[in-house]
Amino acid sequence: MTSTTIVQPPQTIKEVWEQLPEGTRAQVIENQLIMSPRPLDRHQETLINIVLPIGNYVKKNSLGKIRTGPAGVYLDEENIFEPDIMFISSKNIHKFRKDGLHGAPDLVIEILSPSTAKYDKNQKKSAYERYGVREYCIVDPETKEVQGFFLKDDRYESPLELVGRIDSRVLDYEFEF
């Protein structure tokens, strides 16, 4: 007698996302699988120019951890993001699991790309606000314009708009890039 193994196909978008090969650039945004091409060089240069000073500052002052994408942020079953840069304070380190962060980071920085800018500015911003990301920065790598959103009473205030610098309230740190 032979045995038959029945393999169930994925039932949810999250299950589809979990079965993608490692390194696939994809996120689940409002229960939609969003795939994107690899970032352009300007995007990567901007990422490095931001993450190095922040990372050094966080490490020097033992404030928590910095992660760069692709690193999973599980807000819920329908919102699994891979932000460009995130900071998790020491008091929230317990949110890390083997597969990523389960819950809201303290600070998220998204660097705009042509293929994902609309998600960063709209759906992801709304989800970050809803789930309590205390600070959310959107950076345009071409113009160096920064919009910094700060959570107050569970809502993002009008953005602080700067050029070529980030003034982080969460880190109590300002730097140019």
Account of the protein in words:
With 177 residues, the chain is α+β, with helices and mostly antiparallel strands. It has a single domain (38-176), classed as tt1808, chain A (Alpha-Beta Complex), CATH 3.90.1570. It is 22% helix and 35% strand. It contains four helices and 15 strands. It has helices at 13-18, 41-60, 117-121, 123-130; strands at residues 26-29, 32-35, 64-68, 73-76, 79-81, 85-89, 96-97, 100-102, 107-111, 135-139, 145-152, 155-156, 160-163, 165-168, 173-176. Strand 1 and strand 2 (32-35) form a beta hairpin. The protein is globular. The relative contact order is 0.14. The model has no long low-confidence stretch (mean pLDDT 93).
Characteristic key phrases:
seven-stranded mixed sheet; 15 strands; 4 helices; 177 residues; tt1808, chain A
How many E strands? 15
CATH class: Alpha Beta
What characteristic shape results from the CA principal axes? globular
Query: What Rg, in angstroms, do the CA atoms define?
Result: 17 Å
CATH architecture: Alpha-Beta Complex
Nearest-integer average pLDDT: 93
User: Which fold name is given in CATH as the topology?
Assistant: tt1808, chain A
Number of domains: 1
Which structural class best describes the helix and strand composition? alpha+beta
- Structure annotation, total helices: 4
Let me know the largest β-sheet: 7 strands, mixed
Sequence of secondary-structure elements: HEEHEEEEEEEHHEEEEEE
Helix content: 10-25%
CATH superfamily: tt1808, chain A
The oligomeric status of these chains comes to: single chain
- Uncertain segments are none
* β-sheet strand percentage: 35-45%
Distance between the termini: 67 Å
